[in-house]
Design brief:
This protein is α+β, with helices and mostly antiparallel strands. The chain has one domain: YefM-like fold, CATH 3.40.1620. It has three helices and three strands; from the N terminus they run E-H-H-E-E-H. Strands 1-2-3 form a three-stranded mixed beta sheet. The termini are far apart.
Length: about 80
């Protein structure tokens, strides 16, 4: 059976066990697909890439909220009134 792998670098679970930090470094900042019997088991994602993904997801969610509110009436309020 064929599997889609969403990473340019792959490593086996055995390689990950032998040298975890070396496996992460092999991705050069990008995720590394960890394979178990030539099937992707999980992705090892460096902290900076994970944080960037979360930031992007938050931006997408905020854009969806803004798009949903686009047609609503605007009510002007001064800070003193609050």
């Amino acid at each position: 059976m064929a599997f889609r792998i969403f990473a340019t670098t792959t490593a086996s679970i055995s390689e990950l066990k032998k040298n975890p930090m070396g496996t992460v470094a092999a991705g050069e900042g990008s995720p590394v697909a960890i394979l178990n019997r030539n099937e992707p088991a999980f992705y090892c994602v460096p902290a900076a890439a994970y944080e960037a993904m979360l930031d992007r997801l938050e931006d997408i969610e905020l854009n969806a909220i803004a798009d949903a509110r686009e047609g609503q009436t605007v009510h002007k309020v001064s800070l003193d009134d609050l």
